[in-house]
Amino acid sequence: MNEKKVVVLGGGVLGTQIGLVCAYHGYDVTFWLRSESSIGRTTPKIERYSALMLEDLQKAKALIGNPMGAFYYPRGMISNWNEATAESIDALLENGRKYFKENVHIELDPKKAVEDAYIVIESMSEDPKAKIEVYEKFKDLLDEDTILVTNSSTLLPSMFASYTGRPEKYLSMHFANTIWKNNTAEIMGHEGTNKKYYDEAVAFAASIGMVPLQLHKEQPGYILNSMLVPFLSAAQGLWANGVSDPETIDLTWKLATSAPAGPFAILDIVGLETAYNINQMKPQSQVEGTIENKIGKLLKEKIDKGETGVNAGKGFYDYTKK
Ligand SMILES: NC(=O)c1ccc[n+]([C@@H]2O[C@H](COP(=O)([O-])OP(=O)(O)OC[C@H]3O[C@@H](n4cnc5c(N)ncnc54)[C@H](O)[C@@H]3O)[C@@H](O)[C@H]2O)c1
After folding, report:
1. What domains can be seen in the chain, in order of their start residue?
2. How far apart (Å, rounded) are the C-alpha atoms in residues 300 and 278?
3. pLDDT (tens digit, 9 = 90+) per residue, 5-21?
4. Measured between alpha carbons, how far is 57 from 73 in angstroms, rounded to an integer?
5. Model pLDDT for residues 278-297, shown as the tens digit of each residue
6. Residue 150 exposed, middle or buried by CB count within 10 Å (0-12, 13-18, 19+)
7. How far does residue 152's CA lie from ligand 1's centre (Å)?
8. φ/ψ (deg, to 5) at 120
9. pTM to 2 decimals?
10. How far is the centre of ligand 1, averaged over its atoms, from the C-alpha of 234 (Å)?
11. How far, in Å, CA of 15 to CA of 274, rounded?
12. How remote is the CA of residue 68 from the centroid of ligand 1, in Å?
């Protein structure tokens, strides 16, 4: 067992970010991908996200001494912000460049990929069938003590534990998009997860610059989405019911709570397609005249106009304006 070896299954948006953050913190990272064509899709992501991470680190130098700096620096990349200097960030930049170059590997062969791994992080598409297939493929290839975690946002570890061949060493470790800045790791076991491995997962998350947020039992949506989804639904309900408009709803939230963003600005970041998909999963959204149905129609109108959020340049707000 190599305590420095991390394997990421899946080289998508989150998988790439997770692997790079581990490499940045000195782990030796192997991405297991299923085909040559996956390599063609993952390599540009590795390049893009490593450049973004280094760019954010570089920009952090200008935030030193600025009282707002504590809100904007890449929290997953700098552990002691209060003592950071331009020189200490330069040293981190140099290490980061070196580690991205030396510590990141891609492997197609499943056996070679996971050999000696300390931890395997599954971050494949949110498709239960694909996840089960992969767990079954790997179950006899992992070392006795390898910990296996899933980054699934909506699926519970108890759904998969029996396919992993190591239920006691299997749990969820849920990251947020742009993890080098939004450095949360929600750690959630299932009933059969052994505390020893749960605690190891917590320590591992901290060692890659995350703040481990511990759940004591299974909860669909973890902590964050259990709060965020109803909050965003309530805001959309006020809008769809004609009670108020997105700007006023956001302003109310920001003024009253000192929060930097209101629900509609958050929806623009999440993306309106995701909000629409969540809405469509509610049975009431299919019943004419319900508030969920109205929300679905309004979101669909915006999506059809291409107003899907920050990534599209326009959502509830216009991001093309300077
Ligand atoms: N995108 C987010 O904001 C976000 C945030 C937190 C957690 N997650 C979770 O992370 C996981 C991955 O999400 P993502 O956004 O990176 O998805 P993505 O679509 O960007 O990437 C999915 C990856 O899985 C690979 N894959 C799919 N089926 C496979 C199979 N059968 N065998 C091998 N590889 C396969 C794809 O090639 C791709 O590399 C999901 O479980 C998701 O719920 C996503």
Report:
1. 5-214 (3.40.50.720), 227-312 (1.10.1040.10)
2. 12
3. 999 999 999 999 999 99
4. 8
5. 899 899 999 999 999 999 99
6. buried
7. 8
8. -115, 125
9. 0.90
10. 28
11. 19
12. 33
